[in-house]
Amino acid sequence: MAGGSVSVYQALTAGNVGLLLGSLCAGLLGDRLGRKPVLIGCVVAFGMFSLVTAFAGSPLQLSGARFLTGLGLGGGIPLTIALASDFAPPMAQGRLVILMTAGVAIGFTVGGWLASQVVRFLGWPGIFALGGVLPLAIVPLLALRLPESVALRATTRPQNPVTALFRGGLAASTALLWAMNLLNLLSNFFILLWMPAILHGIGVSPSWAIFGTTMYGLGTILGALLTAPLVDRLGVERVLTWVLAFGALCVLSIGLFDPPFGLFSVIICGAGIGVGGCQPGINSLSGRIYPPMIRSTGAGWALGSGRVGAIAGPLLGGVLLAHGWQAREIFVATAIPALGTMVSMAILGRLRRSRRGVNSLL
User: Fold this and answer.
1) How far is CA 41 from CA 24, 27, 107, in A?
2) Nearest-CA neighbor of 246 among 314, 109, 341, 352?
3) pLDDT, tens digit, 9 for 90 and up, residues 240-268
4) If we measure between CA atoms, which residue out of 282, 178, 184 comes closest to residue 239?
5) What tens digit of pLDDT does each residue of 181-227 get?
């Protein structure tokens, strides 16, 4: 049992490392070679190596396949963010990018339910086989119907897109965007991966622990759907600052007040709205902050910093549990990076408003 748990953890870690490197590399290539060909390559890699995972015969093969699958998936997300930002009308950019990236959370939830049905008939390899066939099936459609970014073709591309993220007054915005991604995904993955174990440790049955995690996932979807209609009218930073504050307070209240499980489920849904549900909004900021010639690099490297948090979150949870931390103390600790995300968002909003005010006077 212990060996199986270690193998699963190694595979999860390898997948997250692949997501990290895929975000960094594909973001750069998207600005150099064009969004469309790199995105299609990422989808092919994701589908092909998902199929390979189904035939893994050892923990090492499984970890290697998950790493390579992560490269494709990690690269595809920032490229879609850049493409959606390139084509969206300026007055609807935030809404459309949020709704598009909300598909990740919806797919995570629907995919979990679908996997539970597939595994009954085909076993665990069937999950990865299906996860490989579906992406590969849409590759011809992408090749025929997906347009390349006109905005990218019409611009002069810098020699080093990464250093360009810190030039032209972008350095502070880039640093804040990286910090928000890191802190928010740290909180998100910490809650998602460790909440069932935390609940089980305080006497909640496994089925109800899964229900609590599902409520968090539901809140993640609701958060994206609730913020999307508001961000273009009221401002992305302003809306997300308040929703992030709400999520952090929900997490903190669980640790301070130890609510009964029924109320806990409602509060953890609120935490999902404010923590996980704001990630699509954070993603949309890359399209607003960066010009087209460095947009996919900006989105990729911001998400790459977030993947560091996604790797650190589960590790931090294991350390806290190993040192005997109680559930309430862990939720109080989790509120700290969530509050850090909110503060970073508020600072970014003030920074961008002041810059717009200066530009309007020139």
Assistant:
1) 15, 13, 21
2) 341
3) 999 999 999 999 998 898 888 889 899 99
4) 282
5) 999 999 998 888 888 877 877 777 777 877 888 899 899 999 999 99
Planar angle of CA 97, 17, 339, nearest 5 degrees: 55
H helices present in the chain, as ranges: 2-33, 35-53, 59-87, 93-122, 124-145, 150-153, 161-164, 171-201, 206-234, 236-257, 261-274, 279-289, 295-322, 327-361
Nearest to 331 by CA among 254, 257, 269: 254
Query: By C-alpha distance, which of 188, 145, 202 is closest to 303?
Result: 188
Report the C-alpha gap between 360 and 346 in whole angstroms: 21
The model's pTM? 0.91
Contact 87, 60 (CB under 8 A): no
Q: Are 194 and 314 in contact (CB under 8 A)?
A: yes
User: What are the CA-CA distances from residue 250 to residues 247, 310, 334, 348 (Å)?
Assistant: 5, 20, 11, 23
How far is the C-alpha of 26 from the C-alpha of 78, rounded, in Å?
Answer: 8
d(CA 212, CA 51): 31
- Domain extent listing, the chain: 2-361
Instruction: Give the architecture-level CATH label for domain 2-361.
Output: Up-down Bundle (1.20)
The amino acid that residue 329 corresponds to is: E
Sequence letter at residue 190:
F
DSSP letter at 204? -
- Please give the Cα distance from 338 to 251 (Å, whole number): 8
